[in-house]
Amino acid sequence: MWVKPQEVFLKTPLWDTDETTLYFVLQRRKGHGKSKGLSSLLVGTLDSVRDTKPAPYRILHQTPNSEIYYVIATALTEQEIRQDWQWLIDNVSPTLHSFDTEEEITEFVCCKINSIIATEQENLTEDEDTITYKNVDYDFRQRFAMPKDEKLVCYYSCSYWKGKMPRQGWMYLSVHYMCFYSYIFGRKTAIKIRWADVTELAKTNSLLFPDSIRVVTRDGEHYFTMFLRKNETFALMQQLANIAMKELINDKSGTFNIDKDLLTKLSKNVPKKPSFLKRDLDARKQSNLYTLRFRLPHTEKLDGSEECTLWTPYNKKHNWGRLYLSQNFICFDSRVSHLVRLTIPLRNVYQVERAETGGTGSTADSGSILITTAHHTSFLFGNISDRDFLCYKISELLAKLPNDVYREKSTRAVNRPEEGEWTPQPPLMTLFKTHQTASIRQIQQKKEKQWEDHMAEVGRGVSMYRTTEGSELVVNGIPECLRGELWGVFSGSILQKAQNKGLYEKLVNDALSSKNQANDEIERDLHRSLPEHPAFQNDVGISALRRTLCAYALKNPTIGYCQAMNIVASVLLIYCPEEQAFWLLATICETLLPDYYNTRVVGALVDQGVLDELTKVHLPELHAKLDELGMMKMISLSWFLTLFICVMPYECAVNVMDCFFYDGAKVIFQVTLTILDINRELLLNCAEDGQAMQVLNDYLAGIYNDEAMALCTEPRTAARTIKIQELVYQSYRSYGAAVSSECIEHLRLKHRLRVVRQLEDSLEKNTLRALLQDKLLDANELQELLSIIREELFWAKRVPCERLEAPYEAYRLDYGQFKTLFSALSPWAKGDCADAITTRMFKLMDHDDDGLVSARGLSVAVGLSTRADAQRRLRALYCAHAPPLLSPLELRPTHFTDTGEELATDAICFFDSIENPSTPEPILQRSISEVCGDGQMDKSTDSAYSQCESWQPADCVRACALAGLPSPAASTPGTPPPPRAAPPLPRAHFLQLLAALHDLTQHSTPLYEAVARAGTLLLQLGELNHRPALDREISQDSLFLAAAAQPAPEVDPNGNPTEVDLQKPPRSPSKESEQDEGVWSITLEQFLATMLTESLLEDYFNKQVPIMPMLEALRQRDRLQSVS
């Protein structure tokens, strides 16, 4: 790469010269390439410790009489520097002799290099990364053998504690890895940790490890210290670990998507980051905090922020705070917490103009703008440092909005099928009114009047001013008639509804017309959802609930449906119109309580840890008692998942939901802490968990709300404990400041690492327990195999997914991954037929024919080929070559195949040539009847295989191959497993099996001859089906002697049936027994008995093959590129 010419006075101390001319010098950094010796060790150590990272190759310009040199090119590889060197020799050197003075030569060379650089930069808007960063990125990939798609985020100087001595070096943080490298006088230290394996990140400060960062993995602990920017490093480590954990939670993985809009975004006062990816991650972090604070959709990206004042007309004051801009919103948050907060959708902005007056004590030119919305509401922002730039940014964002965003267009209704016609319901409380006493009706009217007066001052809808007065009204409880409207505003779900017009209707139509597991689960739970409310004793409410839940299951298949969602959705439908209830449910599941309602309820488990830590901090004595009783897990799951609806009276739980939508998840933590604090003395005196749960249940059942009607008409028996408004107020007063939303997010980040790792470990243990039942591989081998499978899935950008059938189904390998591991571990995957045998074993283990094999499929395939007895191994090979697993396409001769692969055709031709010998082999001393007993082997198989009429033939073949192993769970409860029978092998299939056996034994002449003898006998036995006149009662020995006289069928030069034979329509299994006369075939019993008469073959297939060395080699391999 050409660089702007820079002067250097010494050319040799740290560099070796490779080539030199009169005017140019090509140099290599000591410690790179061929450089050796003490000087190379010193330079390598210096480069490892220094902050600057010079490129290892460079070109200098020199003149004979000058002591000054100019660096004109640098490169990371020798190939790149050689290209630049050759260009100089060909294009620049020939012209330099025409100059008169050395000064002119130097001036010409510098101008030439600068012009090349200028020409290259004309096509670039902005370079993503600095040259230094690219040098470091190159070192990072070389030192840790990283794939091309792994992205380095940032690097920091630090020390790693190895034993009792710190090693100074560099920490590299990439999207999927944390690495450390140190090189001190020839001693190299390299550490490579995957973020998905991290279980804990923490700052520590002890005598042994002062001011350090501790990284805990399943394999051990690592301590890093002496950071220049410790807080920045730790924050970035947490962010990257969190990204990895969320990929595991959501069963998703893939390439990290960079926001390229940052390159072209107009910005001011943005500090330069060492890499573009670091800038992208910082922007992503800021955007997440922004969307969390203002309850905006997750897709919003923060564009920038500005200090200013906001004029609030209700109290006629200028309030200092910060203005935030994103693609669709303008937001403001006051400097004093909770004083005032504002959200303005850009789609509502009608006009932005410079105002004539600004903030307090400001002049007309102090920088004020007036934003007017389409609803004729004006917002005045003052004391803006660069008003023109802010106006330009707002104009730019407005210009990027879609054209139809400014006006509400009437959308045509979707034509629904007559039989599926439905109408979205209004709030169910308007259709099914509960009886209210006069006092309660009066309280509700008073509350409604207070809210109407408040909204007359601060506005209504999305752009209302959020003030402390409004917070107090929320704590006292929102009136029932306004609850639906205000829930939508406070939660931000109204914004999602506005951005996705018509989506709910489409989702409902699609969901109701489809059949899936989620819909069946929803149907079972519909009548258990708030059955005491009259709305859900009627088909109107049940149908609305069904539509809401089914539509969300279709919208977010990652979550689908989870129990407790029906309870929450029922309450939402009572107070909100149907579509708004749907978007409120989406906001709860995706924003307010993330990952709560997936199959593993990860979010609830994470919040268990958060509650546990908060209790330990604020109620240490009680925490110790509850921990002793094992109570914390029992509390959080049942309370949090249903937002207290199932544990306290319904009319009280909705008051908690008022605050939950207003202030977020922090409310459920502070209410829980308050309940525990109030009952502290009683809980400390409990002797067992049942007694403690009874204390809490009695307390929760006694909470009352005199300002709303209870759903239950029966008189309440529980003794009154506390008024709900008082409980909520007390929770804010005691824990409102200590338990903030930022605190909750920070603790969730910390505990997510632990929970996800525990779930992964639990899944792995359950998988190991299931695989050990096969009794093929031992526990250590299975543990190593699972670790390697996880590594393969990681490099393939896939993660284990939670499945309900069996734990090993979570690890699913495609053919490429199966081939990689089976080829490395199985003795059957060696030789000319390796690919063919691997493919057939993959098909044999792919039980549902979806192109994926479970971890059990791989362990069974490896176990059968290395540990099973001879009969089971031969049976597996037989079944892998049986129809329909071995398709007619694979039976075509080599010159007909598309890939041109040769499947041991020499073996097939060999068996064809000896198909009709004059006399049987004299070495064969044991007859088939001696091995099989009574000579009924073909009849047993035919009769067993005829039982497969109700099953797919492939299922019967697979069941036969896995005979002796535990059967996997049936897909339908009560369904018996398929019969374990394999069909007779046609001649073409049998020849492929013989070719595979020949390939497996070709390393040994005695084994080769044994296969030849057994194959000859089996080929002759197959001819007996061509002799209908032969009496079926003749002994098998007599049949063998008569087989030599039978004519061979027509075959091609490779020993395969002719195309005429291949094109014959296959017969159904039910007709096999009727028409087996005249058909060439070999049964499984015949095959096993014949092969096992050869003692050499029996010993060979009984041989136990150790696989631990191969597993170790797989673990230690260097992966230079990811598996695609």
UniProtKB/TrEMBL annotation:
SUPFAM superfamilies named among the record's database cross-references: Ypt/Rab-GAP domain of gyp1p (SSF47923)
Basic and acidic residues: bias regions: 1061-1073
InterPro entries linked to this entry: GRAM, PH-like_dom_sf, Rab-GAP-TBC_dom, Rab-GAP_TBC_sf, TCB1D9/TCB1D9B_PH-GRAM1, TCB1D9/TCB1D9B_PH-GRAM2
Gene Ontology MF terms: GTPase activator activity
GO biological process terms on file: system process
CDD domains in the cross-refs: PH-GRAM1_TCB1D9_TCB1D9B, PH-GRAM2_TCB1D9_TCB1D9B
The protein's name: TBC1 domain family member 9
Organism: Bicyclus anynana
